[in-house]
Design brief:
Layout: E1 2-4, E2 6-7, E3 18-25, E4 33-34, E5 38-44, E6 50-53, E7 56-59, E8 63-68, E9 74-77, E10 86-93, H1 100-103, H2 109-118, E11 122-123, H3 126-138, H4 144-159, E12 165-166, H5 184-196, H6 203-209, H7 214-225, H8 229-247, H9 252-258, H10 264-275, H11 279-287, E13 292-294
Parallel strand pairs: 2-4
Antiparallel strand pairs: 1-13, 3-10, 5-8, 5-10, 6-7, 6-9, 8-11, 11-12
Length: 295
């Protein structure tokens, strides 16, 4: 079985920097979809609706602000929302809005990192959303160069905001995207983990690759990535497991084994902790979200 995600054609020409939609609605009726452009989506008064970004599934609150990267499948669904007046402001802009060379400049460091993270989807905190919402609601009234300046200012404010949350797993990062950890050792290890996640991998094994002792490597890895080695390996494995649950009809036990989990209860426990749902319910949610499946 393969899956087909709806490909949305955005009404944004090459001559425009961005397009913006501001609307009031009573529910969500658009299926899971992708598009080439980045999307900044503000949603108000939709408590109980369900958000799907890549392999992330969650129920949203009354204040929702998410940045979705290019070609990352996403959608919002009614779920437990009571159908009250939902306010939505959607801004879509080209992935090359800012030239790659320009993004490498020191002053663009935070926005560059935000764009990198968007490949997995970024959820901004309720505090940030409340602070930014009025600027986004006022953006449709601005025109020309002033509107572009305001969008860039908003992106900068978001890039330096606190408590951002990365939503989707590693398996949804495009192959051509490589993230800088400011360490060749860490990048070599991450590449190793992403190619051998389905095999047994020990701390001593990767410490050798980094030419460090196990204790020194563990400390170094946590400092550079923000996560422990074991948590990172589990996250990579769970991300690939989620892709197989979405894209294939393989049994849950087959998926677990193919992703390096030899203990089913351990796999189910980790999956539920990370995804807040069981593997079976995760697959069923995706099947009901507008994906077309075919043999």
């Amino acid at each position: 079985m393969a899956t087909e995600i709806l490909r949305e054609i955005i009404p944004l020409t090459k001559n425009d920097c961005f397009t913006i939609f501001s609307r009031i609605k009573t529910g969500f009726d658009f299926p899971l979809h992708t598009h080439d452009e980045l999307e900044l989506n503000l949603i108000l008064n939709a408590k109980g609706a369900k958000r799907i970004i890549g392999d992330h599934i969650d129920e949203i609150d009354n204040f929702e602000l998410v940045l979705v990267g290019p070609n990352l499948q996403h959608g919002w669904f009614n779920h437990n929302n009571n159908g009250s007046e939902i306010k939505e402001v959607t801004i879509q802009f080209h992935k090359d809005l800012l030239d790659e060379n320009f993004l490498q400049r020191n002053q663009m460091n935070f926005i560059r990192k935000l764009f990198e993270k968007s490949c997995q989807g970024v959820l901004f905190s309720a505090e940030t959303t409340k602070m930014i919402r009025h600027r986004l609601e006022a953006l449709p009234q601005k025109i020309g160069f002033e509107s572009v300046l305001e969008l860039l200012a908003v992106l900068h404010s978001l890039s330096i905001s606190a408590n951002k949350k990365i939503l989707s797993g590693f398996s949804f990062i495009p192959p051509e995207k490589s993230f800088s950890y400011n360490s060749q050792r860490i990048e070599t290890v991450m590449n190793y983990l992403n190619h051998r996640f389905n095999k047994e991998i020990s701390l001593g094994e990767v410490a050798k690759i980094a030419a460090m002792s196990e204790v020194a490597f563990s400390r170094f890895f946590k400092q550079k990535t923000g996560n422990s080695f074991v948590d990172t390996l589990n996250e990579i494995r769970l991300g690939h497991a989620a892709r197989l649950l979405i894209d294939t009809t393989q049994s849950i036990s087959e998926v677990a084994l193919k992703c390096g989990f030899n203990n089913m209860s351990h796999f189910n426990r980790l999956f539920k902790k990370k995804k807040h749902t069981t593997p079976k319910a995760f697959r069923e949610t995706y099947s009901a979200s507008g994906i077309r499946t075919f043999i």
